């Protein structure tokens, strides 16, 4: 039986269908076998692959689980359905799910991949109170974040190097209990062999290489992508000429920041200060 070629540009849902077929075939499964594992009719899998029928969130999540994609299909679902995310960010997240190495620098808030659910929910609650988002949009962002975080538990996991400006651990988000749990979560994540966490202290002053958030992704083919954003949209750089200055700046940042042992000591001290305040 001839297999119909899929054109990822043929419809809005076609990229999802292409990725579903690739993931299914990589696992050596037929459409009927995948359907049985997901709990749906084989014709449904076929229609989704051909982009004749849009997937449901439940279908995407179950397919990710069965095919062990690290949440890629769910991210693609949200990328198509999203109404609340910064333009440009869903595209970045799609690459992030497949990256071999993730390097990030963040200011003021803990990076999303390292956030607890309570911390992320508190941030979004603030946006709702300020009129920057509806509750539905806030819930969507938190769900999207939880899907992104699945990449940390895939096999093999990505190498994650996070440099946090000191403001990330000093800014109180969600109250003392939420912040204490978030700082403890950072300490626990740093115990994983694939995660490095450093603090860029306030003392760096004007010598800090970046004055905005910067993410760098090294893909399995060693291509490096850069991402940054302003208040209105995100920017994904694929060209080496644009990414190289970010790579050089990040290399300098790693050197200028505190080593992991000293960084964890600062995080632990900040956590204990909050615990003491709450007693």
SS elements, strand count = 6
Task: Provide a count of the helices.
Answer: 12
Report the span from N to C terminus. Answer: 70 Å
Q: What is the ordering of alpha helices and beta strands?
A: HHHHHHEHHEHHEEEEHH
Strand arrangement within the widest β-sheet reads 3-2-1-4-5-6
- Proportion of residues in β-strands: 5-15%
The percentage helix is 40-55%
What's the main sheet like?
6 strands, mixed
Shape: globular
Spans of 5+ residues with little confidence (pLDDT < 50)?
none
Helix and strand composition category: alpha/beta
Q: Can you give the mean pLDDT?
A: 90
Over the alpha carbons, how many angstroms does the gyration radius reach?
20 Å
Describe the fold and architecture:
- With 279 residues, the protein is an alpha/beta fold.
- Helices cover 49% and strands 12% of the residues.
- A six-stranded mixed β-sheet has the order 3-2-1-4-5-6, sandwiched between helices.
- Helix 5 (72-81) packs antiparallel against helix 6 (89-96) and helix 7 (117-129) packs antiparallel against helix 8 (135-148).
- The longest helix has 18 residues, at 260-277.
Would you kindly provide a brief summary of this structure?
The chain is an alpha/beta fold and 279 residues long. The chain is built from twelve helices and six strands. Helix 2 crosses helix 3.
Keywords:
279 residues; single chain; 6 strands; alpha/beta; 12 helices
SSE layout and pairing:
Blueprint: H1 14-26, H2 31-38, H3 42-49, H4 57-67, H5 72-81, H6 89-96, E1 101-106, H7 117-129, H8 135-148, E2 159-165, H9 167-170, H10 176-189, E3 195-200, E4 214-218, E5 224-229, E6 234-237, H11 240-256, H12 260-277
Parallel strand pairs: 1-2, 2-3
Antiparallel strand pairs: 1-4, 4-5, 5-6
Helix pairs in contact: 2-3, 4-5, 5-6, 7-8, 10-12
């Amino acid at each position: 039986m001839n297999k119909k070629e899929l054109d990822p540009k043929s419809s809005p849902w076609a990229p999802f269908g292409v990725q579903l077929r690739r993931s299914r075939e990589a696992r050596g499964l037929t459409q009927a076998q995948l359907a049985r594992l997901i709990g749906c009719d084989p014709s449904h899998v076929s229609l989704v692959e051909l982009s004749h029928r849009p997937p449901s969130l439940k279908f995407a999540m179950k397919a990710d689980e069965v095919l062990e994609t690290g949440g890629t299909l769910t991210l693609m679902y949200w990328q198509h359905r999203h109404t609340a995310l910064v333009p440009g960010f869903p595209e970045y997240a799609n690459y992030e799910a497949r990256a071999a190495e993730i390097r990030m620098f963040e200011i003021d808030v803990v990076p999303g991949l390292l956030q607890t659910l309570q911390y992320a929910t508190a941030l979004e609650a603030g946006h709702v109170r300020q009129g920057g988002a509806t509750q539905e949009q806030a819930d969507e962002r938190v769900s999207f974040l939880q899907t992104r975080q699945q990449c940390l538990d895939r096999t093999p996991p990505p190498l994650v190097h996070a440099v946090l400006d000191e403001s990330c651990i000093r800014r109180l988000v969600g109250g003392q209990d939420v912040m204490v749990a978030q700082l403890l979560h950072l300490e626990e994540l740093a115990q994983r062999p694939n995660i490095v966490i450093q603090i860029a202290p306030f003392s760096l002053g004007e010598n800090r290489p970046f004055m905005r958030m910067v993410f760098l992704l090294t893909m399995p083919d060693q291509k490096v992508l850069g991402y940054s954003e302003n208040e209105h949209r995100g920017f994904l750089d694929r060209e080496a000429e644009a990414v190289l200055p970010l790579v050089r700046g990040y290399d300098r940042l790693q050197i200028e920041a505190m080593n992991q042992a000293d960084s964890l000591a600062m995080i632990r001290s900040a956590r204990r200060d909050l615990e003491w305040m709450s007693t």
